[in-house]
Specification:
This protein has 1 helix and no strands. Keywords: Coiled coil.
């Protein structure tokens, strides 16, 4: 009996220490889990904010791109109009030159 009491005196504090450590680690792991879940929520919020900012910038860039394309189309139309006018003027001036040359030949003859 004395030997059993001696072994209990040795093992009981060790068992109590193991129980205390186990309890502490479970509490700590729960706290860490809670901390990680909070960190996860914070990351989700940051991702959501970044995504909305990205979508807003994407909308702005798309509208700027649309405006730029419209401006390019307008410039192309204006250039085509001017080119056609220039072509018509060139044709008219060429006709004038030909008619002047023809009239000069007639005068020389």
């Amino acid at each position: 009996r004395a030997q059993r009491m001696a072994t209990l005196r040795v093992f009981l504090p060790a068992a109590a220490e193991r129980r205390r450590r186990k309890l502490m680690t479970s509490c700590l792991s729960g706290w860490k889990r809670g901390c990680w879940s909070l960190r996860g929520l914070r990351v989700e919020e940051e991702v959501r904010a970044a995504r909305s900012m990205f979508e807003q910038q994407e909308k702005e860039l798309k509208s700027q791109l649309k405006d730029a394309r419209e401006m390019i189309d307008d410039l192309r139309e204006e250039l085509a109009r001017k080119d056609s006018l220039t072509y018509k003027q060139a044709c008219a001036s060429e006709q004038e030159i030909l008619s002047l040359q023809e009239s000069l030949r007639r005068q020389q003859d």
